[in-house]
Amino acid sequence: MRADFTKMHGLGNDFIVLDARTRSLPAIDQAMARALTDRHTGIGCDQLILLEPSDTADFRMRIFNHDGGEVEACGNASRAVALLHGAAASVQTSGGVIQVEPRAQGASVDMGEPRFDWEAIPLAYGMDTATMPVGWDGLDKPGAVNVGNPHVVFFVEDADAAPLDTLGPEIENDPLFPERVNVNVATIVNREHIRLRVWERGVGLTRACGTGACATAVHAMRCGLVEREVTVTLPGGDLTIAWSEDNRIRMTGPATEAYRGSFEWDDFA
Ligand SMILES: N[C@@H](CCC[C@H](N)C(=O)O)C(=O)O
Protein backbone atom coordinates (compact mmCIF):
# COMPACT_ATOMS: atom_id res chain seq x y z
CA MET A 1 0.00 0.00 0.00
CA ARG A 2 1.23 3.54 -0.75
CA ALA A 3 0.92 6.09 2.05
CA ASP A 4 1.01 9.87 1.72
CA PHE A 5 3.05 12.05 4.04
CA THR A 6 3.67 15.76 4.58
CA LYS A 7 7.16 16.92 5.57
CA MET A 8 6.91 19.92 7.92
CA HIS A 9 9.00 21.81 10.43
CA GLY A 10 8.79 24.36 13.22
CA LEU A 11 12.01 26.42 13.35
CA GLY A 12 13.94 23.49 11.84
CA ASN A 13 12.57 20.84 14.25
CA ASP A 14 11.27 18.58 11.48
CA PHE A 15 8.42 16.09 11.18
CA ILE A 16 6.90 13.49 8.92
CA VAL A 17 3.13 13.92 9.32
CA LEU A 18 0.88 10.95 8.50
CA ASP A 19 -2.83 11.76 8.38
CA ALA A 20 -5.04 8.84 9.41
CA ARG A 21 -8.07 10.99 10.28
CA THR A 22 -10.13 10.02 7.25
CA ARG A 23 -8.21 7.06 5.83
CA SER A 24 -7.01 4.56 8.40
CA LEU A 25 -3.44 3.29 8.34
CA PRO A 26 -1.97 0.02 9.69
CA ALA A 27 -0.53 0.21 13.23
CA ILE A 28 2.89 1.85 13.66
CA ASP A 29 5.33 0.24 16.08
CA GLN A 30 8.66 1.49 17.41
CA ALA A 31 10.68 -0.25 14.67
CA MET A 32 8.59 1.33 11.91
CA ALA A 33 8.82 4.79 13.48
CA ARG A 34 12.61 4.37 13.67
CA ALA A 35 12.80 3.24 10.03
CA LEU A 36 10.79 6.22 8.74
CA THR A 37 12.65 8.80 10.84
CA ASP A 38 16.11 7.48 9.85
CA ARG A 39 17.92 10.27 7.95
CA HIS A 40 19.99 7.84 5.86
CA THR A 41 17.62 5.03 4.97
CA GLY A 42 14.18 6.54 5.65
CA ILE A 43 12.45 9.86 4.96
CA GLY A 44 14.21 11.40 7.97
CA CYS A 45 13.00 13.71 10.74
CA ASP A 46 13.18 14.45 14.46
CA GLN A 47 9.59 13.28 15.13
CA LEU A 48 7.00 11.20 13.30
CA ILE A 49 3.50 12.63 13.81
CA LEU A 50 0.38 10.51 13.36
CA LEU A 51 -3.02 12.22 13.18
CA GLU A 52 -6.04 10.07 14.10
CA PRO A 53 -9.74 10.60 14.88
CA SER A 54 -10.53 11.44 18.52
CA ASP A 55 -13.59 11.00 20.79
CA THR A 56 -12.60 13.87 23.07
CA ALA A 57 -11.16 16.51 20.71
CA ASP A 58 -11.29 17.51 17.02
CA PHE A 59 -8.48 15.04 16.33
CA ARG A 60 -5.68 13.15 18.04
CA MET A 61 -1.94 13.71 17.55
CA ARG A 62 0.48 10.87 18.36
CA ILE A 63 4.19 11.64 18.55
CA PHE A 64 7.11 9.25 17.96
CA ASN A 65 10.66 10.41 18.64
CA HIS A 66 13.57 9.66 16.29
CA ASP A 67 14.44 6.63 18.48
CA GLY A 68 10.92 5.22 17.82
CA GLY A 69 9.57 5.86 21.34
CA GLU A 70 6.05 7.30 21.60
CA VAL A 71 5.88 10.46 23.76
CA GLU A 72 3.27 12.81 25.17
CA ALA A 73 3.81 16.29 23.69
CA CYS A 74 5.52 18.27 20.94
CA GLY A 75 5.16 22.05 20.80
CA ASN A 76 6.62 22.61 17.33
CA ALA A 77 4.53 19.79 15.84
CA SER A 78 1.40 21.35 17.41
CA ARG A 79 1.99 24.48 15.35
CA ALA A 80 2.72 22.40 12.24
CA VAL A 81 -0.53 20.43 12.53
CA ALA A 82 -2.44 23.69 13.14
CA LEU A 83 -1.11 24.90 9.78
CA LEU A 84 -1.99 21.60 8.11
CA HIS A 85 -5.52 21.54 9.60
CA GLY A 86 -6.08 25.17 8.57
CA ALA A 87 -8.52 26.13 11.35
CA ALA A 88 -8.70 26.43 15.13
CA ALA A 89 -8.99 22.97 16.71
CA SER A 90 -8.70 21.00 19.92
CA VAL A 91 -6.05 18.29 19.72
CA GLN A 92 -5.86 15.23 21.98
CA THR A 93 -2.32 14.22 22.94
CA SER A 94 -1.24 11.81 25.63
CA GLY A 95 0.07 14.87 27.52
CA GLY A 96 -3.45 16.45 27.54
CA VAL A 97 -5.82 18.31 25.19
CA ILE A 98 -4.29 21.43 23.61
CA GLN A 99 -5.93 24.18 21.52
CA VAL A 100 -4.28 25.18 18.25
CA GLU A 101 -4.98 28.26 16.12
CA PRO A 102 -3.30 28.91 12.78
CA ARG A 103 -1.85 32.42 12.39
CA ALA A 104 -0.03 34.14 9.51
CA GLN A 105 3.06 31.95 8.87
CA GLY A 106 2.53 29.76 11.89
CA ALA A 107 0.26 29.15 14.82
CA SER A 108 -0.56 29.97 18.40
CA VAL A 109 -1.15 27.09 20.80
CA ASP A 110 -2.68 26.88 24.28
CA MET A 111 -0.33 24.23 25.67
CA GLY A 112 -2.25 23.78 28.95
CA GLU A 113 -1.01 24.06 32.53
CA PRO A 114 2.55 23.37 33.73
CA ARG A 115 3.09 20.84 36.53
CA PHE A 116 5.83 21.20 39.13
CA ASP A 117 5.24 18.33 41.61
CA TRP A 118 8.18 15.94 41.62
CA GLU A 119 5.81 12.99 41.00
CA ALA A 120 4.41 14.75 37.92
CA ILE A 121 7.80 15.46 36.27
CA PRO A 122 8.41 12.52 37.09
CA LEU A 123 11.48 12.34 39.37
CA ALA A 124 12.65 9.16 41.09
CA TYR A 125 12.36 10.74 44.56
CA GLY A 126 10.98 13.88 46.17
CA MET A 127 12.74 17.26 46.06
CA ASP A 128 12.08 20.95 45.40
CA THR A 129 11.66 21.24 41.60
CA ALA A 130 12.40 25.01 41.56
CA THR A 131 16.01 24.50 42.71
CA MET A 132 16.99 20.86 42.52
CA PRO A 133 19.98 19.96 44.72
CA VAL A 134 21.73 18.02 41.92
CA GLY A 135 24.41 18.66 39.30
CA TRP A 136 26.41 17.15 36.43
CA ASP A 137 29.95 18.45 35.76
CA GLY A 138 29.25 22.17 36.05
CA LEU A 139 25.55 22.06 35.12
CA ASP A 140 23.82 22.28 38.48
CA LYS A 141 20.74 23.32 40.48
CA PRO A 142 18.27 22.92 37.59
CA GLY A 143 14.51 23.32 37.74
CA ALA A 144 12.05 20.71 36.49
CA VAL A 145 8.72 21.29 34.74
CA ASN A 146 6.25 18.99 33.04
CA VAL A 147 4.45 20.74 30.15
CA GLY A 148 2.86 17.52 28.86
CA ASN A 149 6.36 16.02 28.70
CA PRO A 150 9.27 16.14 31.19
CA HIS A 151 11.90 18.88 31.13
CA VAL A 152 14.86 19.91 33.22
CA VAL A 153 16.16 23.51 32.85
CA PHE A 154 19.64 24.85 33.66
CA PHE A 155 20.43 28.57 33.68
CA VAL A 156 23.98 29.17 32.44
CA GLU A 157 26.20 32.14 31.59
CA ASP A 158 26.43 31.16 27.90
CA ALA A 159 24.00 28.56 26.52
CA ASP A 160 26.07 28.23 23.32
CA ALA A 161 29.13 27.14 25.31
CA ALA A 162 27.37 24.51 27.49
CA PRO A 163 28.58 20.96 26.65
CA LEU A 164 25.09 19.72 25.81
CA ASP A 165 26.32 17.11 23.32
CA THR A 166 28.11 15.22 26.11
CA LEU A 167 26.05 16.08 29.21
CA GLY A 168 22.69 15.96 27.40
CA PRO A 169 22.66 12.16 26.97
CA GLU A 170 24.04 11.64 30.48
CA ILE A 171 21.31 13.75 32.08
CA GLU A 172 18.56 12.39 29.78
CA ASN A 173 19.33 8.87 30.98
CA ASP A 174 20.09 9.61 34.65
CA PRO A 175 18.09 7.32 37.02
CA LEU A 176 16.72 10.51 38.65
CA PHE A 177 14.37 10.69 35.62
CA PRO A 178 12.44 7.40 35.38
CA GLU A 179 10.80 8.48 32.07
CA ARG A 180 14.07 10.08 30.89
CA VAL A 181 14.02 13.84 30.32
CA ASN A 182 14.46 16.69 27.82
CA VAL A 183 17.47 18.83 28.79
CA ASN A 184 17.37 22.64 28.38
CA VAL A 185 20.31 25.04 28.86
CA ALA A 186 19.25 28.67 28.92
CA THR A 187 20.75 32.12 29.25
CA ILE A 188 18.61 34.97 30.54
CA VAL A 189 19.44 37.86 28.18
CA ASN A 190 17.04 40.30 29.86
CA ARG A 191 13.57 40.23 31.46
CA GLU A 192 11.92 39.69 28.07
CA HIS A 193 14.44 37.49 26.29
CA ILE A 194 15.93 34.01 26.84
CA ARG A 195 18.45 32.12 24.67
CA LEU A 196 17.96 28.34 24.68
CA ARG A 197 19.52 25.12 23.42
CA VAL A 198 17.84 21.75 23.92
CA TRP A 199 18.97 18.15 24.06
CA GLU A 200 15.72 16.32 23.27
CA ARG A 201 14.89 12.98 24.83
CA GLY A 202 14.89 10.33 22.11
CA VAL A 203 16.42 12.65 19.49
CA GLY A 204 19.51 14.61 20.60
CA LEU A 205 20.33 18.23 19.77
CA THR A 206 17.53 19.85 17.78
CA ARG A 207 17.27 23.26 16.14
CA ALA A 208 14.23 24.03 18.28
CA CYS A 209 11.98 22.48 20.91
CA GLY A 210 8.57 24.10 21.53
CA THR A 211 7.88 22.35 24.83
CA GLY A 212 11.47 23.14 25.89
CA ALA A 213 10.80 26.83 25.23
CA CYS A 214 7.57 26.60 27.29
CA ALA A 215 9.25 24.75 30.17
CA THR A 216 12.24 27.12 30.24
CA ALA A 217 10.12 30.28 30.08
CA VAL A 218 7.78 29.06 32.82
CA HIS A 219 10.68 28.01 35.06
CA ALA A 220 12.33 31.43 34.55
CA MET A 221 8.98 33.12 35.36
CA ARG A 222 8.55 30.90 38.44
CA CYS A 223 12.02 32.04 39.60
CA GLY A 224 11.07 35.71 39.01
CA LEU A 225 13.82 36.20 36.41
CA VAL A 226 11.64 37.32 33.49
CA GLU A 227 8.24 38.86 32.69
CA ARG A 228 5.14 36.69 32.06
CA GLU A 229 5.69 37.00 28.28
CA VAL A 230 9.11 36.40 26.72
CA THR A 231 10.88 35.76 23.43
CA VAL A 232 12.82 32.50 23.46
CA THR A 233 15.59 32.36 20.85
CA LEU A 234 16.56 28.84 19.77
CA PRO A 235 19.17 27.93 17.12
CA GLY A 236 16.30 27.71 14.57
CA GLY A 237 14.63 31.04 15.50
CA ASP A 238 12.24 32.72 17.93
CA LEU A 239 9.12 31.66 19.83
CA THR A 240 6.90 33.84 22.03
CA ILE A 241 5.88 32.19 25.29
CA ALA A 242 3.29 33.66 27.68
CA TRP A 243 2.10 32.22 31.02
CA SER A 244 -1.30 33.67 31.88
CA GLU A 245 -2.68 34.54 35.32
CA ASP A 246 -5.06 31.58 34.93
CA ASN A 247 -2.02 29.27 34.69
CA ARG A 248 -2.08 28.48 30.96
CA ILE A 249 0.95 28.48 28.68
CA ARG A 250 0.60 30.04 25.22
CA MET A 251 3.23 29.43 22.56
CA THR A 252 3.25 31.42 19.30
CA GLY A 253 5.62 30.99 16.38
CA PRO A 254 6.25 29.83 12.83
CA ALA A 255 5.48 26.53 11.15
CA THR A 256 6.28 25.47 7.59
CA GLU A 257 5.23 22.80 5.13
CA ALA A 258 8.38 21.68 3.25
CA TYR A 259 6.98 19.14 0.75
CA ARG A 260 4.58 16.22 0.24
CA GLY A 261 5.34 12.69 -0.91
CA SER A 262 4.39 9.04 -0.63
CA PHE A 263 6.13 5.78 0.31
CA GLU A 264 5.51 2.05 0.10
CA TRP A 265 4.25 1.03 3.60
CA ASP A 266 5.69 -2.50 3.49
CA ASP A 267 9.21 -1.17 2.79
CA PHE A 268 9.24 0.26 6.34
CA ALA A 269 6.90 -2.08 8.28
N1 LIG B 1 10.33 18.70 19.49
C1 LIG B 1 9.37 18.74 20.49
C2 LIG B 1 9.39 17.78 21.63
C3 LIG B 1 9.31 16.32 21.14
C4 LIG B 1 9.21 15.30 22.24
C5 LIG B 1 10.41 15.25 23.15
N2 LIG B 1 11.61 14.88 22.45
C6 LIG B 1 10.13 14.27 24.28
O1 LIG B 1 10.65 13.14 24.25
O2 LIG B 1 9.37 14.62 25.19
C7 LIG B 1 8.80 20.09 20.80
O3 LIG B 1 8.84 20.95 19.91
O4 LIG B 1 8.22 20.27 21.87
TrEMBL record:
<keyword id="KW-0413">Isomerase</keyword>
<feature type="binding site">
    <location>
        <position position="47"/>
    </location>
    <ligand>
        <name>substrate</name>
    </ligand>
</feature>
<feature type="site" description="Could be important to modulate the pK values of the two catalytic cysteine residues">
    <location>
        <position position="151"/>
    </location>
</feature>
<feature type="binding site">
    <location>
        <begin position="75"/>
        <end position="76"/>
    </location>
    <ligand>
        <name>substrate</name>
    </ligand>
</feature>
<keyword id="KW-0028">Amino-acid biosynthesis</keyword>
<dbReference type="InterPro" id="IPR018510">
    <property type="entry name" value="DAP_epimerase_AS"/>
</dbReference>
<comment type="subunit">
    <text>Homodimer.</text>
</comment>
<feature type="active site" description="Proton acceptor">
    <location>
        <position position="209"/>
    </location>
</feature>
<feature type="binding site">
    <location>
        <begin position="210"/>
        <end position="211"/>
    </location>
    <ligand>
        <name>substrate</name>
    </ligand>
</feature>
<dbReference type="Pfam" id="PF01678">
    <property type="entry name" value="DAP_epimerase"/>
</dbReference>
<comment type="function">
    <text>Catalyzes the stereoinversion of LL-2,6-diaminopimelate (L,L-DAP) to meso-diaminopimelate (meso-DAP), a precursor of L-lysine and an essential component of the bacterial peptidoglycan.</text>
</comment>
<feature type="active site">
    <location>
        <position position="74"/>
    </location>
</feature>
<feature type="binding site">
    <location>
        <begin position="200"/>
        <end position="201"/>
    </location>
    <ligand>
        <name>substrate</name>
    </ligand>
</feature>
<feature type="binding site">
    <location>
        <position position="65"/>
    </location>
    <ligand>
        <name>substrate</name>
    </ligand>
</feature>
<feature type="binding site">
    <location>
        <position position="182"/>
    </location>
    <ligand>
        <name>substrate</name>
    </ligand>
</feature>
<feature type="site" description="Could be important to modulate the pK values of the two catalytic cysteine residues">
    <location>
        <position position="200"/>
    </location>
</feature>
<dbReference type="InterPro" id="IPR001653">
    <property type="entry name" value="DAP_epimerase_DapF"/>
</dbReference>
<feature type="active site" description="Proton donor">
    <location>
        <position position="74"/>
    </location>
</feature>
<feature type="binding site">
    <location>
        <position position="149"/>
    </location>
    <ligand>
        <name>substrate</name>
    </ligand>
</feature>
<dbReference type="GO" id="GO:0008837">
    <property type="term" value="F:diaminopimelate epimerase activity"/>
</dbReference>
<comment type="similarity">
    <text>Belongs to the diaminopimelate epimerase family.</text>
</comment>
<protein>
    <recommendedName>
        <fullName>Diaminopimelate epimerase</fullName>
        <ecNumber>5.1.1.7</ecNumber>
    </recommendedName>
</protein>
<keyword id="KW-0963">Cytoplasm</keyword>
<keyword id="KW-0457">Lysine biosynthesis</keyword>
<feature type="binding site">
    <location>
        <position position="13"/>
    </location>
    <ligand>
        <name>substrate</name>
    </ligand>
</feature>
<comment type="pathway">
    <text>Amino-acid biosynthesis; L-lysine biosynthesis via DAP pathway; DL-2,6-diaminopimelate from LL-2,6-diaminopimelate: step 1/1.</text>
</comment>
